[in-house]
Amino acid sequence: MRILFLVLLSIALFSCSGNDDFVAVSDNELLDFSNLLTINFENLPNYSNQNIPNYITKDNTTTGNIITNEGATLGRVLFYDKQLSSTNTIACASCHKQEVAFGDDVQVSLGVNGVTGRHSMRLVNSRFSNENRFFWDERASTLEEQTTMPIQDHIEMGFSGEDGDLNFDDLISRLESTAHYPALFNFAFGSEIITETRIQNALAQFIRSIQSFDSKYDQGRAMANNDVQPFDNFTPEENLGKQLFLQPPVFNNQGIRTNGGIGCAGCHQAPEFSIDPNSLNNGVIGSADGLGSDLIVTRSPSLRDVVKADGTANGQFMHIGVSSNLITVMNHYNAISLAGNNNLDPRLRPNGFGQQLNLTQDERDAVIAFIQTLAGNDIYTNEKWSNPFVE
């Protein structure tokens, strides 16, 4: 199939994908990038108006950078382009892989000058959270800010401008020298000017477009009045797991659970299963390299698609990539230690003690069965989120 990228000049185009106004362009230029990209620019995928269930209410979209098909298409190209690393060897997609819900399947990811300090976080449903800050330690105030920080990191993508590294202006010059990027930026933003802000906006639009709402959970939730009632399409085990996940535990004065659920939803709030912005450390205080402590980690990705529907893990869990086995996660929360942790979330230290959930095997199995219902299918194969480059 011949893929054409049309720039129609004679039509005034307008966009909401940033603070720049579209300008009129003439209709005498036909650009053909079919030897480079598999995108049909005459029939773009739907990024801007995807179906979002009416029970999903959280949205951290930045004002002035709503998703457009043109902006997200540019973001997709940037996301998969290894030219965004100083050595032309690492793309955003190298550490955020579609087949594992846009996370990584290794404990730490390989950059241009070593390995990352933390496990690469899954990006699926990044948009649907009350938490506006990004990275495990929340050092980025917005997703836009986050997108270019790995590019400017000496270890990750190498455009740091320090210690002999190329700087971000060198990246912009590299993109400006290509045949396709000036045209793509014009397509998305109305002029060929390439800036860090425009790169951030395009990448953020693409990442926010990556959504997963076709799970067994969503099928059940669509037929229910709320999250609490049993779902008709769930097995008894899955409904028990949902109840345990949602219901807070009852503790005695020594932090031992005596009744109730296990309270996962206190931090991982349904139906988005995103992290509560007020969450503190979850009791995992190690570092990915096994050296020292990492107490400031307070963010986590959505629990949607943490595993696939068959239970296969989408990479390792938590910031240190501690395990790809949910049993390990359950065992961690079953018995929380206070040792060496002055930043532990209060919900994990009832009455001043590290929580002791006393989970039975049936309860562990039920919660794991429920977490599997949060897995979709489309996220792993949909072409609009896939590598757009001709291989």
Please, could you describe this protein's structure?
This protein has 391 residues and is of the alpha+beta class. It folds into two domains: 5-212, Cytochrome Bc1 Complex, Chain D, domain 2 (Orthogonal Bundle), CATH 1.10.760.10; 216-375, Cytochrome Bc1 Complex, Chain D, domain 2 (Orthogonal Bundle), CATH 1.10.760. Helices cover 24% and strands 7% of the residues. The chain contains ten helices and eight strands. It has helices spanning 69-80, 92-95, 143-148, 168-176, 181-189, 196-209, 216-222, 236-246, 326-334, 361-372; strands at residues 5-11, 25-31, 110-111, 114-115, 249-251, 257-260, 268-269, 274-275. The strands form four sheets. It has a two-stranded antiparallel ribbon. Strands 3-4 form a two-stranded antiparallel ribbon. The protein has a two-stranded antiparallel ribbon with strand order 5-6. Strand 3 and strand 4 (114-115) form a beta hairpin.
Brief account:
The protein has helices at residues 69-80, 92-95, 143-148, 168-176, 181-189, 196-209, 216-222, 236-246, 326-334, 361-372; strands at residues 5-11, 25-31, 110-111, 114-115, 249-251, 257-260, 268-269, 274-275.
